[in-house]
TrEMBL record:
Assigned keywords, A-Z: Heme, Iron, Membrane, Metal-binding, Monooxygenase, Oxidoreductase, Transmembrane, Transmembrane helix
Protein name per Swiss-Prot or TrEMBL: Uncharacterized protein
Domain of life: Eukaryota
PANTHER family: CYTOCHROME P450 FAMILY MEMBER, CYTOCHROME P450-RELATED
Metal-binding keyword on record: yes
Amino acid sequence: EGSQTPFRIAKLQAMGAVAALLLAGLLAALTYVLRLVHSILWVPHRLERRLRRQGIRGPPRSLLSGNAAEYVAMTKAAQSAPLASFHHGFIGRAAPQYREWAARYGRPFVFWFGPRPRLVVSGPEVAKAVLTDSTGAFEKGTTGSGNNPQARQLIGEGLVGLTGEKWAHHRRVISPAFNMERVKGWIPEMSAIASSMLDKWEVQGGTHTEFEIDASKEFQTFSSDVISRVAFGSSYEEGKRVFQLQEEQIKLALLAMRTFYFPGFRFVPTKKNRRRHS
C-alpha cells in the first residue's frame, strides 16, 4: 500500500491536470460562442432597431446570411434575362437589388451581408458629403475583402480596401507613377493599341455593313494590353495566361464578397475553396 501511494498521488495530479485543461477548453469555447452570439445576433439587432427609429427600413434579413441569398438570386435572374433593347438603364441589370429595394422601402434603405449592414443613400448632396468628408466620420466599410478572409486571400490588402494611415502610405507610394506628365507619355502607346483593335474589327467585319463584337471581352483585352505595354513592356498575348488567371481570381473574390462568410469555412475542401488555394 505504501508503494501505491505515490502512484495514486501521480494519478490524482494527472486527473487534476486533465480536468484543468478540459475546464480551460470549455471556458475558451464558451467565450467564443458568446462573442459569436454578440457579433452575429446582438450587434445587428441593436443596429437594426436604431435604423428603424430613424425611419430607415429594408428587406427582412436572415440571422446568419442577411440578404445575401436574395441579393445573389436577384442578380442572377436579372443577368440571365435577355436585354429587350439597347438603352442606358443598366442599373436594373447590373444591380437590380438597388432599384427594387429602393422602390419597395424608399431611400435611404438598408440591407445586410451576414451580420453587417449596408446603408444605401442617394442624391448628389449626400454623395458629395460622404465622398468629400475629411474628418474620418465616414469610414470605408469592411463588408468587402477586409471582412472576408477568402476574398482577402485572393486580392490582398490593396489601396481599395485600406483605410487610415495604411491607405495614406500606399497612396504616397503609387502617386509618382500616375502623375500627369508620366500619363501623357503613355498616350502614343495607348493610341497604337486602340488603332490595332479598330483594324482588327475592320478585318472581322469585312464587307459587311453590320457585324457583332463582344464589347466586354474586346475592351477587357484592350485594357489588359495597355497595362501590359505601359507597365511591363510586353503585350496581352505574351501575358495572356496571367490575365486569365487574374480574371478567374477576381470572379472567385467577388463570389466570396457576395456571400456570408462563416468562420472556418475557407478550410472546408469544397471545389471553389480548393481552387482558391491553388
